[in-house]
Amino acid sequence: MELLRKWLGHPEDIYNLLRFKMGGYRAVMPRMDTVSGEGCAGGGMPFAVAGARCSRWGAGHERRRRGTLSCPGADRVHAVCIFYLVLRALDTVEDDMSIPLDVKVPMLHEFHSHLYQPDWKYTESKEKDRQVLEDFPTISMEFRNLSKVYQDVISDICHKMGVGMAEFLEKKVDSQHEWDKYCHYVAGLVGIGLSQLFSASELEDSIVGQDTDLANSMGLFLQKTNIIRDYLEDQLEGREFWPREVWSRYAQKLSDLAKPENIDVAVQCLNELITNALHHVPDVLTYLSRLKNQSVFNFCAIPQVMAIATLAACYNNQQVFRGVVKIRKGQAVTLMMDATNIQAVKAIMYQYVEEIYQKIPSTDPSSNKTQQVIASIRALSLPGSPMASRHHYSPIYLSCAMLLAALSWQYLSTLSKATEEYVQAGE
Length: 427
Fold this sequence. Notes:
CATH superfamily of the domain at 230-383: Farnesyl Diphosphate Synthase
InterPro entries: Isoprenoid_synthase_dom_sf (IPR008949), Squ/phyt_synthse (IPR002060), Squal_synth-like (IPR006449), Squalene/phytoene_synthase_CS (IPR019845), Trans_IPPS_euk-type (IPR044844), Trans_IPPS_HH (IPR033904)
Number of helices: 22
Cofactor: Mg(2+)
Radius of gyration: 22 Å
Largest sheet: none
Organism: Polioptila caerulea (Blue-grey gnatcatcher)
CATH topology of the domain at 230-383: Farnesyl Diphosphate Synthase
Protein name: Squalene synthase
Distance between the termini: 23 Å
Order of helices and strands: HHHHHHHHHHHHHHHHHHHHHH
Helix content: 55-70%
CATH architecture of the domain at 230-383: Orthogonal Bundle
Pathway: Terpene metabolism; lanosterol biosynthesis; lanosterol from farnesyl diphosphate: step 1/3
Number of strands: 0
CATH class of the domain at 230-383: Mainly Alpha
C-alpha cells in the first residue's frame, strides 16, 4: 500500500514511466549516430546497455560516474567503456583500505603506466570491485587496441587522477579551494577526459575538448551534489568530504551536524554548500549549448538535470542528516526523456532553481548569496519554452494515471525495476 500511496501522490510518474516503457526511451537513446551514420555496436545495442555490462564487470560502479548515452559508433563506445573500466580500477585501488599507504601511494602514481604492461594485475585487493584489478590484463589489452588519440587521453587523465587521489589520501578537505581541487581530481578530470574523447572522435568540435574549465565545472557540479546528498552515508562509513572551512562555522566536528540538537545549524551549513554548487550551473549551460551530437548531448545533460533536481530536494531539508534523499524514479525518467535539447534543459534548470528560491529561509546566513546565484541562472534559463509546463498534463491523462495506479500498482512496481539501469544516474 505504501507504493500505491506513492504513485497516487505523483500520478504523473505513472504516465511517464509508461511513456518511457512504451517508446519514450527512444528520444534518449537514438539508434544511429547522427554524425557518422554508423550503426551501434552489437546490432543496435544502446550505450546504456553497453555501459550496464561494463558496470557489471565493475560490480557496481559509483553513482557519481554513471550516465546514459546511445552508442555513437563501435570504436567511440569502446573508448568510453575502456575509459570507465580504467578509472573503475583506479578507484578500487584508492578505496581499498587493506592496501598499506606505502604501497598504495606509488601504485596510484604509477597506475597509468600499467596500461602498457600486458601482464600487470593486482590480486590482493579486498574490495568488492576487485575483479577489474584481477582482470586488468584484459582491460589493458583492449586499451592498447584503441586508436592512439584515445589512448593518449585515457592515459593522461588516469595519471592526473592517480596523483590527485594520492594527494588526498592523508589529508582532509579543509578549504573551499581544496574542495574544488578534490572534486576536480575525482570528477572534473572525468568531464575533461570525456570532452577530449568527444572531440577526438569528431563527434563534437575541438572547443569542447579544449575548454577544460567548462568541462571541469560539469564534473564539479555532479561531484558536489553527491557529496552534499551523501553526508550521512559517508559519516556512517567514516568518510568526510564536506570542506572544514564551511562546516567549522556551524559545528566543532562534522559529525555534530547529525545530532538532533544541531539540526538548525546543520541545515544552514547544507544550504551554504548547495549555494556553492549552484555556481557551476551557468558553466553547465554554456557547455551543453556547444554540443551538437544528440547522443553526446543526452549523455552529458541527463546527469546534470538529475543533479539540479537532487539539490532542490536537499535544499533546506533536514532529512539529509537523518536518512537518504533521492528523486523519485518517475521523476528521473521524466528528466531523462525531457532533457534532449538545450532549451529543455534551461527550462528544467529554471524550474528547480525556482523551487529552491521558494524555500530560502529569510534567516538563512546564505540567503543573499543563494538569491544572487539563482538570479544569474535565471538570466540564462529564460522561461517560456514548452518544457516549462511539462508537468501540467490534461485531466484525462491524470485520471487515467490514477486509475492505473489503483488497478495496476503491482505491475508498475515490476516495471520500475525493469527501468532501474536507466534511472541509476539520478540516484
